[in-house]
Amino acid sequence: MTQATEQSGKRGKRGESGESGELTALQAALAAEHAAVYGYGVVGGRIGADRRTEARAAYDAHRARRDALVREVRDLGAEPVAASAAYALPFPVPDAATAVRLAAELEERVAGVYSDLVRAAADQRRREAAGALREAAVRAVRWRGGSVAFPGLAERAGTDAATSGVPATPTA
């Protein structure tokens, strides 16, 4: 635990949030972006030529968000969560159709994590998290071909809250 994390934990909390809650949500968003970058590497290797440009744009967007989150966590005086060497995918991805399905799943999971950051953050960071949530939700719709009523909110979308919004599991 860093000194900044220890100090923020001593300052109290804004409801469930507080500065330490915001840092926790930032770290979770960073972990989700690490997983999305890894996942889009798999998507890019399996996606059809007709959607390769879209996959590359999403990959680049997640890399940019990841890098921005690393800077934000460091600015708060904490050590950014590191990427895992590999992540367990939610299902096998042998072809272009499952690559599209994986891309939609990645975006839905990222949206879920950003919804947590929206709840934990304030001011500019909240606006940025809401923008990231919106972008992930729009990409999910494009990949899936349909939308949910409350992107990023598993309990409202009718999905299992225990599995939605959680990045793919690191394997090593």
- Poorly predicted runs are 1-17, 156-169
Q: What structural category characterises the helix and strand content?
A: mainly alpha
Strand content: under 5%
Q: Biggest sheet, open or closed, and with what strands and sense?
A: 2 strands, antiparallel
- Percent of residues in helices comes to 55-70%
Number of strands: 2
What is the approximate shape? globular
Rg (C-alpha, Å): 16 Å
Can you characterise this structure?
The protein is an all-alpha fold. It is built from six helices and two strands. The chain has helices spanning 3-10, 18-46, 52-75, 96-120, 123-144, 154-157, and strands spanning 87-88, 169-170. A two-stranded antiparallel ribbon has the order 1-2.
